[in-house]
Amino acid sequence: MIRLKQLCLILGACLLGAIALGVLWLGGKVALYNQLDSQVHLVGKKNYLQRISQLPQTVDRPNIVLILFDDLGYGDLGVTGSQAISTPNIDQLAKQGLNLSNFYAPAPVCTPSRAGFLTGRLPLRAGMPSVVFPSESSFNVIHKLSDTNIRFPAEEITLADVLQAAGYATGMVGKWHLGDQSPSLPNDMGFEEYFGALYSNDMTPFSLYRNRDIEISAPADQTRLNEWYGRETSQFIERHNKEPFFLYFAHNFPHIPLYRPDKDTGRSKGGLYGDVVEGLDDVVGRLVSKLKSEGVYENTIILITSDNGPWYQGSPANSRGRKSDTFEGGMHVPMIVHWPAKLEGGKTITGISMGTDWFPTFLDWLDLPLPGDRIIDGSSLRGMLENNESSPNDYVYYFSGKNLMAIRDARYKYHDRRGVVHATSGLPIAFSIPKGPWLFDTFTDFNESYDVSLSEPEVTVRMEKALKVKRKEMKENMRGWVVKND
Question: Is 112 in contact with 152 (CB distance < 8 Å)?
């Protein structure tokens, strides 16, 4: 009996020691975490941008305005079917421009999606597969333990980097959410001017920055975001109306928490959420009016889209799922393209496309070469937009973090076996139940209700193979660096 007691004491001491060592190891891993940038590809970036700066201007250079809303659903606009929310300014741009009905965000959540839009690379390639948090946040511990980046890798090349090198004035207004420390701030990544929040409006402290310094201290009054952001976009256009400019306007709304000025209370039939979206439409109207008054409207490309699908409120239209999901509702978002000087408007484009396609599309329009040391996952949409050609993409890919979950071609979408969340109303927990693989026919079943894998076995095999090929490619070259053999 004494020996057994002694043995238990020894085992208990060993267990406590192991736990202590584990805690020390984890603490050391967090304390010693240091995200390193690739010096080789920083040099490659520098050399590429220097080359861009030395190229002759061979084409007319339009202004570019990229408007990226946060968590706006596909069905939240009048032009996409909303009966509760009125968006006349956005609808007018859609009527006069192009409506891309099969457009996808690069990811179902914000940070990776924004990285994809700005780099033309899948978020995993761009080193941003997951949402990042303020430096002081305890959530960063999880990233550090898993060796996940907590800021935008400095070696990534953004659209702003390229356009700045090509002689554009570059400015950003709104939500960055790609890291709150140098060398990953907006002014480090190609934007000469910046005004906005470094992360989501539900993260604290919510301050507004002017370039690298806080201009409006936390807690910034979010009922005034439209006022402040509208002012900043107008002033940027006014300052740079005599030169080509790139304005990236990334509003924090309609991400929660939702705020509106008192004057907007009850203006929509969509409750607080609808009031907020109608306020966003006002800001778009103000921006368009400024482009017209400054005489630069005709030759300005305006894009309006969302970083992912709607969260707890908002409409994914006829799509299954919402934000954070690789069902359509998480990534199928509106995309309006308006460029009177170049594109014939009043059309709906049905070809599949993704946020990663805009980086190569803009470079194609400007006759600029792509970087040679990295894979650009997107494809130029120029032929599809100008000449009604079919999509340049054979597939679009649905990633959740580092995991490729699904794949879609022009007609079919294939889900590999995956967890499908089931929740009973009133219970505080949900269950992920493994289901699939599934094949959906988007022509007849866009809301992914009916698996046709048994009736379309050849399509299923082809899509499964394409998904596995992409997984293998990503595993072998996750960051997508191009090795040159001299």
Answer: no
For 477, the 3-state DSSP assignment is coil
Q: Which of 8, 41, 143, 177 is catalytic?
A: 177
CA 6 vs CA 2, 3, 16, 17: distances in Å: 6, 5, 15, 16
177 among known catalytic residues:
yes
Helix (H) or strand (E) holding 2: helix 2-31
What would the pLDDT profile of 358-411 be if each residue is shown by its tens digit? 999 999 999 999 999 999 999 999 999 999 999 999 999 999 999 999 999 999
**CA dist., res. 359 & res. 375, Å (int):** 12
324 exposure class (CB count in 10 Å sphere: 0-12, 13-18, 19+)? middle
Task: Could you list the beta-strand ranges (E) of 38-138.
Answer: 63-69, 98-100, 103-104
Q: What is the pLDDT of residue 2?
A: 64
Burial of 33 (0-12, 13-18, 19+ CB in 10 A): middle
- 3-state DSSP call for residue 162? helix
- Model pTM greater than 0.85? yes
Are 130 and 143 within 8 A, CB to CB? yes
Give the pLDDT confidence of 314-367 residue by residue, as tens digits: 999 989 999 999 999 999 999 999 999 999 999 999 999 999 999 999 999 999
Of the candidates 110, 240, 251, 415, the residue annotated as catalytic is 110
Residue 132's nearest CA partner among 111, 109, 106, 155 is: 111
